[in-house]
């Protein structure tokens, strides 16, 4: 493809997960697309991630993957490192400096000064891209994903065909589903506001072509989310109040409320390790706390009075079922932690929505 293709800023948020991030990067640098910028934004990792990513860029850190073969040919990469305090105080030459180097020969590393969470961590990188890179699209990728070489091209092509499309999602496979890599995790989702939960199309199904038709969907999973720049500028970025979980659903609903469509493009494919980015590092308490709090926060923003009523009834039974499961499956200390998290999630929601 020529450099006339729309410019895409590919944003990968890293937090103590350099091994997954390197595998994701290796797949990105093999895509069939020429006009892109890769931005790795690090949320103040404590596992030496920055050095590992820099070593990868210099060809000193190889990648082992079941899905993508490591290539020496595109190393070294030119590394551009920026600290958070400098993100918005730079002279207007960043894009010009980058454009002297081919897309597959450069990488931008953004160093956040603390763990801002998923929403604000990504927002800082989006704001950097909008200010300095002038992208046509923003692609949000979880660091525990691997992309097919055609993935970006297929999503951009689909978005370019219809001005009503505000965001695009690929077909998402499990990275490893009992040894298989052809089992679908996400092919778009329909969302039921009466119970406050979504239903993924083709979830846990072996891909036999049953989800090969493009469709308009209600929500898109944040592990791979292509957004038109003008749409983001109209509806706003991720709401940082969520910190982690449900911020992608919130953004999807705002995009739809503004009159745009969310599109599922099955020709674009990625693989997702599911939960590695956060669940492996967050405590049981933190995960349950944000899942409960943010679900309530989302529902009170977007549901009608009737939908809130039916959701509340459903949610009470949902919480009771989870309490039983926690007590059955977990030891006493973990059970206490999970129950406290649910309680804190509800009380924190009440503080935000008095």
Give a nutshell description of this structure.
The protein is α/β, with parallel strands linked by helices and 354 residues long.
List the helices and strands and how they pair.
Blueprint: E1 8-14, H1 18-28, E2 36-42, H2 49-57, E3 78-83, H3 94-98, E4 106-111, H4 117-132, E5 137-142, E6 145-147, H5 151-160, E7 165-174, E8 184-186, E9 189-192, E10 197-200, E11 215-217, E12 224-228, H6 229-235, H7 247-257, E13 261-272, H8 284-302, H9 305-329, H10 332-352
Parallel strand pairs: 1-2, 1-5, 2-4, 3-4, 7-13
Antiparallel strand pairs: 5-12, 6-13, 7-8, 7-12, 9-10, 11-13
Helix pairs in contact: 1-2, 8-10, 9-10
Description:
The protein is α/β, with parallel strands linked by helices and 354 residues long. It is 38% helix and 21% strand. The chain has ten helices and 13 strands. Helix 1 packs parallel to helix 2. It is globular and about 60 Å long. Mean pLDDT is 93; it is low at 276-282. InterPro entries: Nucleotide-diphossugar_trans. Keywords: Glycosyltransferase, Membrane, Transferase, Transmembrane, Transmembrane helix.
